[in-house]
Structure formats: C-alpha cells, structure tokens
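for the writeup, i need someone to sanity check this before i put it in the appendix. the sequnce is what the collaborator sent (i think, or maybe the updated version? ugh). structure was predicted straight from it, no edits. if anything looks off just tell me and ill rerun, i have time this weekend
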Amino acid sequence: MSGTVRSTTVGQCQTFDMTPRFSVDFNELLERDLIMLSQTDLREDINGSSVLLVEGLLVEVQEENLYDDGTHEVLFARGVVEANSTDAWSHVKWCCRFDADGFSDIAG
C-alpha cells in the first residue's frame, strides 16, 4: 500500500489515517505548483480505493515512467486539494496545490 500513514492516539485507542496517493500526469500542471486532479468529487487512489475529494484534503501525487533506456522515474509531490479557480480547463473540478517542497524524482 502506498501513501503516508499517520497515527493518532485518543485515550487507549490508536487510529491510523492514510494520506491518499493519486496517479497524475505532470504534463497537466496549471501553475508551477498546481496540477489537475479530478473532474468529479470521487477519485480512485493508486490502490483502487475511492476517495472523496474536499477542499484542504492532504494528498500525495505521483507519475511513474519507465523509459526505453531502462531509466525509472517516479515524480512525487505532497499537497492539498483545492477547487480549480484558474481560467483554464474549466471541466476540471479539483486540483492539487504542492507544498513548499514541490515535486521531485523519488525513484533513486
């Protein structure tokens, strides 16, 4: 399973909150730190689970590529869901705004 796991302890109970991770196309950047995420309120994460997108939801996004020369690339970013307020691509309802770390190749 991919994503970041956070745990919270309340009394004697411990709950786990997994940050959903979505596959995206980094060619769909609307701004240097904003990428298209979904046309609808529900989107499947990379594990096949349906996730309800809402303003402010913490998410992770990635694009995995394997090139003909054998190079493996995984572009990755963390961010928050926000409504598409750009004048471009009006059919896109939700975007992901990257955190201050931006995106990077985590394939190693």
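The two ends are 19 Å apart (CA to CA). The chain has no helices and ten strands.
thx in advance!!
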